[in-house]
Specification:
Layout (H helix, E strand, L loop, with lengths): L5 E4 L2 H12 L7 H23 L12 E6 L4 E6 L6 H7 L8 H10 L3 H10 L11 E9 L6 E6 L4 E7 L5 E8 L14 H11 L7 E3 L8 E2 L16 H12 L7 E7 L5 E7 L16 E5 L2 E7 L11 E6 L8 H5 L2 H24 L1 H16 L1 H4 L4 H7 L2 E3 L2 E6 L1 H6 L7 E6 L3 H5 L5 H5 L4 E4 L4 H7 L2 E2 L2 E5 L10 H24 L4 E6 L8 E4 L7 H9 L9 E5 L4 H11 L4 H18 L7 H15 L1
Parallel strand pairs: 2-8, 12-14, 17-18, 17-20, 21-23
Antiparallel strand pairs: 1-6, 2-3, 3-7, 4-5, 4-7, 5-6, 8-9, 10-11, 11-14, 12-13, 15-16, 15-18, 19-20, 22-23
Amino acid sequence: MTGKVETLEFQSEARQLLQLMIHSIYSNKDTFLRELVSNASDALDKVRLEAFRDKELAVDTDDLHISLEIDRENRALTVRDNGIGMSRDDVVSLIGTIAKSGTAEFLRKLKESQDAAGAQDLIGQFGVGFYASFMVADKVTLVTRRAGETGGTRWESAGAGTYTIEDVAEAPQGTAVTLHLKAEDAEEHLYDYASRAKVVEIVRRYSDFITWPIRVEPEGGGEPETVNSRKALWARPQSEVSEDEYTEFYKHVSHDWTAPLETIRLAAEGTFEYQALLFIPERAPFDLYMRDRKRGVQLYVKRVFIMDDCEELMPEYLRFVKGVVDAQDLSLNVSREILQRDRQIELMRRRLVKKVLSTVKSMRADRPEKYETFWSEFGRAVKEGLLDDTDNRDAILDITALSSTHDAEKSTTLGEYVSRMKDGQDAIYYMTGETRSALENSPHLEAFRAKGYEVLLLTDPIDEMWVGSIPEFDGRKLQSVAKGQVDLDSEEDKAEARLREEEFAPLLGWLGEQLGEDVKEVRLSSRLTTSPACVVGDTFDITPNLEKMYRAMGQEVPKIKRVLELNPTHPLVTALRAAHAEQQEHADLADSAELIYGMAILAEGGDLTDPTKFVKLLAGRLEKAL
């Protein structure tokens, strides 16, 4: 007996995705089966976990497995599991829609992709593997019953924008996905998915490591045979595992369709034993900076799956790391609450983090091309650890790649910067801002460039935060070239500067009064060589860029007065001093003060308080000059 059949429409983005799947040709259609088998494996993991947690749950876990049923005559392939199953609401929310905030971005990238392989990669990146079924099927039928419930649900779609759904009274525990295969695929043996040989070949290539038995009936009929080896890769000697096996396992745990950038193995022995198989992806997932993203590695206890996305084993700044940790001594009914206060989990986390960071460090030393890929994809996330993980701060600093004035094409580490420091240089100089080009053209760099001092150019928003929280590296203080006083002059230069201070004292005092609403002080500069003026902050002031970031987040920041520095050798400044000494017309001098201050603000990429007034003053001065 079945219930009423409803016809519903796919969510609009799901409908677009289905059409792209149906009408696109991908270089490797075989991967649809890997996705379905992975989903079935996840369902089996979850039902065993639920049975551990809820002893009252009416569920059969005696023979958990995956069956692949081939109907060659009717050209159908069914992937069946007796796992956790789905309720009707689950089916509508998980299959009828794509409940992911990044779907629109995925569709845009999929449409823009210029080649089949690139499009295929995106499918895995955005976690929409079930929809890959429509690459090989012109109709998909799903029958499911959630463990513990009495009735099931039947879902069916031809991928044309709608699907039907109905309640069914009789349905086995778990999920069965039946693909009614496209007729045109039979013409090419490569895509003959109604062939047992082809199905077994795909399983052994992509899913051999899955711990659950995958069973296929023999050609002539009879008892189904297990066709996968079921060997946990992390438990096998490293010498017995091929790169291809690592790659396929990574694709299984990450739902990515590309090979990992780096594979990391770790085994701890002694009083507390565990094994880990971790992967660094080749590219950042689309949701790396989304708040509702899932993160963490899979946790097993004695090869029994406990949970996905175990956040307690990997810090936030390493949220891109995927893989498996298999512990020997944890309880099988461990909960997230227990994990948060478990000392053994904390010890594992520390060891895993150190292993990941040391792997990246060796990658920079031995495989620089891989490191450059890693840092371009994950560098911003890793730098978050400079704020959050004080225990590993030095290790993170060791692998942090930064731009500098030393080489426009190649990044540097702080260690490499220190090795190039000039004799007598006691500080690591840096500047923060929005873009490299803006920083390179900043007047703050003029004296440093003239004297051959290297300056770090930091343009990531997170850079504004961590440089303020780390006072030194390797015994050298970190100093902003746009804050405080700089001491680059020789003793002879300093003596000359003291004489100039006396000469300019009347002008500096008068300018301080004229610009008192905007600046806290006016002084002569030792950091300028070609520009007439610049504005700098005191040592502990927040930067203008950080102030902008706070305001963009809706946080009010009190007005911070900064220091106006003048270049005593610039003709504009010397002319202004002479005019002030001769007591020329007061209004003109006041206008000149406003113009010099406005130019200094613009030179650093800042925003004028009153642009209209500045333009009028500039137009008037140009008119007089002409």
